[in-house]
Design goal:
This protein has about 700 residues and is of the alpha+beta class. Among the domains are: about 5-175, 3-Layer(aba) Sandwich (Glutaredoxin); about 210-430, no CATH class; about 625-709, Glutaredoxin, CATH 3.40.30. Helix content is about 50%, strand content about 10%. It is built from 28 helices and 20 strands. The protein is globular, with a radius of gyration of 26 Å. The chain starts with 16 loop residues before the first helix and ends with a helix.
Length: about 700
């Protein structure tokens, strides 16, 4: 294996942290673009496309094993044009070839390895390949040799195969998702609940067996399904999962936040990367659960997650960074990197930094063992190490140590702060410091909602700062378009559907938190641009891309929820909120067309579209408008706002008639708001279809009128 410092390839001029990680491989990498495409056509070579992201553990493994190896690089450089793509930078490229890999192999993931014709059509693909044959898996060298030979001797067969598979993908309903004859109703909600109930793990929470992923859209659906139907089992499923995740090793008990997923059923052994989009969605979910139950521990989980983001994932301009790596340098050997090294503990280290009594209490609560507590260690990485989890409760600790619950809590808080200081001296995981518009939109939602539930002004400021950053750095004012991501002073790629949908959602949440009418106006402007660039005016719904990039083979219309919610589902909800905020029926019509576009899929597999079902519940429920007339700085206005936000009422919109520009703008869309004078004591109106009940001034009456207990 050669030293990476001896080589520099074309990726050295890129901004993506992932591409820069490969800039010194001996592989003659190209970024996705015309230079690579033209070389493949001119030299009549197949393309080797490798897709990953900078905090991907197995991407690092494949780089170390193969792409830093001169013998592998020689094969690639001799027979192929090699292209590297950051999936977070180019989700359009990733989505097309992931659809292919999943279709031909039955699964997908990263790193993704796909071989293409010079016309960018795939003919072979998979995910991670070891350099040599291993464990029944063909090695990369063998595969490269076979493909090179087939390209030389059986090219027509490969080309025909590529043409055929692309045609099949173009006609695939799972990609295009148009069924304009179906009109979904409440039965889809009931069927989704039953489907989820059948796969629920009633012991550990979550769905199915290992590995287990956080599933915020599913848990959100269950909480809202309970609110709509009173089905207690839906509430129990969601809350059990949230508590088990909060207790497990998937949560960082020292620094806050959540790791990507758990390799076991018990949520104990995580894949250690931390993604911004997970923090945003999970924070919102724990905030909702707190409002439903009044459980302060759930609020504490949300606070810990949000404070982690502020501390470790926030840039100096208010933007939010993308992720922290699963791998990190080993504290005792910084030249060696291992998964989870930053987060693991051995018992002697803990005991060396704590008093014997504190160490015993901490071991008791967090399951620390002398030989290590990791039972599920498929790659033998965690021998003698401990992944912290709640093995016992504070009640258990108080009883065992004969102290009060409060004393146990305060002692553990002090111990965690001490261990946080110790851990802070370790080498940190790699930080992917690009700011992705869609993920920042999700985080704006999280901080906006947190400011309402937790009444924290710094959370609202964080949301506003991020929105200001996006407006300044990721919005092309002249063209009126959003850009995908920002890093190191540059933002070049036009945004995709998710960037618009998630940012619009964030701005609507931000308006309902701080009532800056400019946020609502920008959301409306972005929605119009989204409609212009992505809407399928004939079939309903939105394409994921604008269709302007000729290198993208398929113009997809996605709807399944993955690690991030579906852009179409979030858009449906945005459209309905805009309809009821501004009284604009055209937005409601677009939402109805969107539901019809995916109606057949909603009916057949509703559990796979939980975020869409949230929007459908909002549509079927007929949301209430709570309009508060008053000075936003007055105590009585704040008291009414606090009452409006006190409990979990999902199908609700809160507007503010402030006597200023905000009320003028709202009145231009909904004239009845003009008559809600903010003079005198603040008043709240509950309205439906532009018809309002008599105003109330007492916050308790407002709670009663909202139908809350």
């Amino acid at each position: 294996m050669t030293s990476s410092s001896e080589h520099t390839n074309r990726l050295a001029g890129e901004k993506s942290p992932y591409l820069l990680q490969h800039a010194h491989n001996p592989v003659d990498w190209f970024p996705w673009g015309e230079e690579a495409f033209e070389k493949a056509k001119r030299e009549d070579r197949p393309i080797f496309l490798s897709i990953g992201y900078s905090t991907c553990h197995w991407c690092h493994v494949m780089e170390r094993e193969s792409f830093e190896d001169r013998s592998v690089a020689d094969i690639l450089n001799r027979h192929f044009v090699s292209i590297k793509v950051d999936r977070e930078e180019r989700p359009d490229v990733d989505s097309v070839y992931m659809a292919y890999v999943q279709a031909v192999t039955g699964s997908g993931g990263w790193p993704m390895s796909v071989w293409l014709t010079p016309r960018l059509k795939p003919f072979f693909g998979g995910t991670y390949f070891p350099p040599e044959d291993r464990g029944g898996r063909a090695g990369l060298k063998r595969i490269l040799g076979r493909i090179a030979e087939a390209w030389k001797n059986e090219r027509d067969r490969l080309m025909d195969s590529a043409d055929s598979v692309v045609e099949q993908l173009r006609n695939s309903a799972p990609l295009m998702g148009a069924d304009t004859t179906a009109d979904p109703d409440e039965s889809a909600l009931d069927e989704a609940f039953q489907q989820l109930l059948r796969s629920f793990d009633s012991v550990h929470g979550g769905f199915g067996a290992a590995p287990k992923f956080p599933t915020p859209p599913i848990l959100n659906f269950l909480l809202r399904y309970h609110a709509r139907t009173g089905e207690d089992k839906a509430r129990e499923m969601a809350l059990l999962t949230l508590h088990r995740m909060a207790d497990g090793g998937i949560r960082d008990h020292i620094g806050g936040g959540f790791h990507r997923y758990s390799v076991d059923r018990q949520w104990h052994v995580p894949h250690f990367e931390k993604m911004l989009y997970d923090q945003a969605q999970l924070a919102c979910l724990y905030l909702d659960a707190c409002r439903i139950t009044g459980d302060g521990d759930l609020a504490g989980v949300a606070r810990g997650t949000l404070d982690y983001v502020l501390r470790d994932l926030r840039g100096d301009q208010g933007q939010f960074y993308s992720a922290e790596d699963a791998d990190s340098p080993c504290p005792d050997d910084p030249n060696q990197r291992k998964e989870g090294a930053f987060y693991l503990w051995d018992q002697p280290e803990i005991e060396s930094h704590l008093t014997p009594e504190d160490a015993a209490l901490f071991r008791f609560v967090y399951g620390v063992e002398q030989e290590g507590n990791v039972r599920d260690d498929p790659h033998g990485e965690f021998g003698g190490k401990n992944i912290l989890y709640h093995a016992r409760t504070l009640k258990d600790a108080a009883g065992e140590w004969n102290i009060s619950h409060q004393e146990a809590e305060e002692t553990l808080d002090r111990i965690r702060r001490r261990l946080f200081e110790v851990r802070s001296r370790r080498p940190r995981p790699h930080l992917d410091d690009k700011a992705v518009t869609s993920w920042n939109g999700l985080m704006i939602s999280a901080f906006s909602r947190a400011s309402q539930v937790l009444d924290e002004a710094n959370y609202l400021k964080a949301a506003n700062d991020a929105a200001d950053f996006l407006r300044k750095n990721l919005f092309d004012v002249e063209r009126g378009v959003v850009l995908r991501h920002y890093r190191d002073g540059a933002a070049e790629i036009d945004g995709y559907l998710d960037d618009y949908a998630f940012l619009i959602q964030g701005l609507l949440d931000l308006y309902e938190s701080g009532f800056d009418i400019g946020r609502l106006e920008w959301a409306l402007e972005l929605q119009k641009t989204q409609d212009r660039l992505f809407e399928d005016s004939e079939g309903g719904g939105y394409f994921s891309t604008s269709g302007e990039d000729g290198s993208i083979l398929l113009r997809e219309k996605s709807y399944f929820d993955g690690a991030e919610p579906s852009g179409n589902a979030v858009s449906a909800h945005n459209l309905l909120r805009l309809k009821h905020m501004l009284g604009r029926e055209e937005f409601g019509n677009k939402a109805e067309n969107l539901f019809r576009a995916f109606g057949g899929i909603i009916d057949s597999t509703p559990h796979a579209l939980p975020r869409m079902l949230l929007a459908l519940q909002f549509y079927l429920g007929g949301p209430k408008q709570v309009v508060i007339a008053g000075d936003p700085e007055s105590d009585d206005t704040r008291a009414l706002l606090k009452a409006a936000r006190r409990h979990f009422v999902p199908d609700k919109i809160v507007l503010l008639a402030d006597g200023g520009r905000g009320q003028d703008v709202l009145s231009g869309y909904q004239p009845y708001i003009a008559g809600m004078a903010p003079e005198g004591p603040a008043r709240a109106y509950i309205c439906e279809n532009q018809t309002c009940r008599a105003a109330v001034e007492d916050p308790d009456e407002l709670i009663l009128f909202q139908g809350e207990d």
